Amino acid sequence: MTLRRPHPAWLVAAVAFIALVGAAGFRATPSVLLQPLHQEFGWSLGTISAAVSVNLLLYGLTAPFAAALMEKFGMRRVVAGALVLVSAGSGFTVFMEASWQLVLCWGVLVGLGTGSMALGFVAIVANRWFVHRRGLVTGVLTAGGAAGQLVFLPLLARLTGAHGWRVAALTVAAAALIVVPLVWWRLRDRPADLGATAYGAGPDDVASLPATPPGSAARNALRTLRHAAGTRPFWLLAGGFAICGATTNGLVGTHFIPAAHDHGMTETTAAGLLALVGLFDIAGTIASGWLTDRVDSRLLLGGYYALRGLSLLVLPSLFAATAHPSMVVFILFYGLDWVATVPPTVALCREYFGASGAVVFGWVFASHQFGAAIAATSAGLVRDRLGAYDWAWYGAGALALLASLLSLMLLAGRRTRDGGPAGPGIGLAFPAAATPAAPAS
């Protein structure tokens, strides 16, 4: 008997998953270090949250250009460089003495690094290496960020409590750097680089993305945005995803631990609860990828956002000094819905924009981080001015219900396409069967 070797696509996906976990360490850092930095330097939560907002904003703005850079220079170079930036940004914080240095390290360096490995990277791996199981692979890779949060949050909380926040920052720096050799050894850009085809590709399938378009990566990313921005689906997806960012990374990811601490809960306990969000998020995101292969993505997004909004509206009444059962139920429910929105959003970008879907998703993801940046700063200001986070949670719940409505509005565009010619601004910006025609010479 001979052992059957796994398809190369699965090995590439595994390395991508590990790289995402390595970079995800910083995603857990701000919520753990918010109070220690406030206590040591005396900076207000609004000031520290502003550094987080710069990170989130650059994380989003870098994503579409990173997707274009990956098409131009290859995933391996871009991802390895991104991990080095994350390591440098986290490591240099141990030398800072002023708040602007926090903005430079947390905001600029780590923002650029993590943005270069954002969900556009996930979309490229799934689209290039898989024909079958794309939704499932997207869900698994997206869960890599949650796995990183799960791995690092309790560890960082314990390190901070026992040895101080500088040891925690250096741990994140080392974790990101350790992954670089693995990325350089195994990550490849296209199946053809290994003499293979995409997983599940048949004779009639295109095994890889079209040839890299001429011109600079930045110009191609901006040209893609210009075409996509002329369509109604792009703005509905971007609007919903901006609210997604505001209600996850921006608010819960950054301020859940300080909010729980306000009610007498220890930071270690609160970090454990947030890590549970990551645990359930892994299951929820993988299940969402499975559902995306079988259920209309517009309906999935509408349901996800509605359930998230309702859960946030009841959250202020659940905070207490201990993790009582009602809070644990919220953590379970919210965790399943944390980034379950990603697989259907990636699928819709591919459906509406075809071969340009990965770069378009990079721009949609930029809106996600724009919303997260606004929420991170706004929630910190609400806490500084009102002395509590309650109105931040209520506002986020209302916005999530609005995102549900925006997602369901995509159904109208689908019916128009199925039933006849699409109206202005509705329909495929770049049909899946072809890219925009070049002008005649």
UniProtKB/TrEMBL annotation:
Its main location: membrane. Residues 11-415 form the Major facilitator superfamily (MFS) profile domain. Pfam families: MFS_1 (PF07690). It is a multi-pass membrane protein. Keywords: Membrane, Transmembrane, Transmembrane helix. InterPro entries: MFS, MFS_dom, MFS_trans_sf, Proton-linked_MCT. GO terms for molecular function: transmembrane transporter activity. The chain crosses the membrane at residues 41-66, 78-95, 101-124, 136-157, 163-185, 234-257, 269-291, 391-412. GO terms for cellular component: plasma membrane. The keyword S-adenosyl-L-methionine does not apply. It is found in: Cell membrane. The keyword Membrane applies. This is Sugar phosphate permease. It comes from Pseudosporangium ferrugineum. The lineage of its organism: Bacteria, Bacillati, Actinomycetota, Actinomycetes, Micromonosporales.
